Amino acid sequence: MLVTTKEMFEKSMKEGFAIGAFNVNNMEIVQAITDAAHETQSPVILQASSSVGYLMKMVQAAVEEYPEVPIAIHLDHGPDFETAKMCIDNGFTSVMIDGSKYDFEENVALTKQVVDYAHSKGVVVEAELGKLAGIEDDVNVAASDAMYTDPVQAEEFVKRTGCDSLAIAIGTSHGAYKFKGEAKLRFDILKEIKERIPNTPIVLHGASTVIPELVNMCNQYGGNIPGAKGVPDEMLHEASISGVSKINVDTDLRLAMTAGIRKVFVEDPSAFDPRK
Predict the structure, then answer these.
(1) What span, in angstroms and rounded, lies between the C-alpha atoms of 182 and 65?
(2) Average pLDDT, 10 consecutive residues per value, the chain (276 residues)
(3) Which among 11, 73, 88, 271 has most CB atoms closer than 10 A?
């Protein structure tokens, strides 16, 4: 059975660790994530933003293969009530409604609408306050428009919406180019937010490490992604013991898959069987 993130987050907050939340785009990525979760005996959150019908069948296959692994299926960056409702009605156990592009009152109203429907179906809701820079699927925010989360607003937002977890902006960003200079996260903002809403799980979007070895492999085999830079592992660790309960990863998975494909095609030009 698929599970919600509620028990995962309760355990993470009590014991001081974060749950990995990984975006899935195809069968191979679903298999890779769930194989790893099984090997490490870790709870895991699978995230999607489209292809709901096909995806749910693949996730169900993973659940049947590893029934002992707690697996949640989550809508990432739901743009509106209709999308969130569709995912809830199709078996998602968690949904995100991303109203961060709206002003505070509009974000509250939209989030509350989703929360009311989701909770009536036993589904949990993640919301977002603050704006992360970068590009991920349909989310595109210029660096000049990025905005840190206000801790005072965060407290009011959670009280008024009843959301189950809150994604905050403390300096991470979507995509492969997160930092131009030295990586820096605002742990002071995280600390104040946790003090104000200690029982609300905190989510960190845009948190791929952009693993240098994978970037180098992509570039070595014909790629063109110079200067890509992500969030260092030590910063993610600090976040996980400082109150972050969910860390989102997407870019690293894309890099791993495309780097592997590029390597095979260059080293074996005769390869044409996708199963290999």
Answers:
(1) 42
(2) 95 95 94 97 92 87 96 96 95 96 96 98 97 56 66 97 96 74 88 97 92 95 91 93 95 94 96 88
(3) 73
Provide long-range contacts, Cβ within 8 A and 24+ apart, for 182-187.
183/229, 183/230, 183/231, 183/232, 183/235, 185/231, 185/235, 185/239, 186/148, 187/238, 187/239, 187/242
User: 81 in helix, strand or coil?
Assistant: helix
Provide the greatest CA pair distance for the chain: 60
Q: Which residues are catalytic?
A: 76
State the Cα–Cα distance between residues 192 and 216, nearest whole angstrom.
38
Its pTM stands at: 0.91
Please report, for residues 129, 186, 248, the alpha-carbon distance to residue 148 in angstroms, rounded to integers and kept in the order given. 8, 9, 18
CB proximity list for 256: less than 8 A, separation 6 or greater: 211, 214
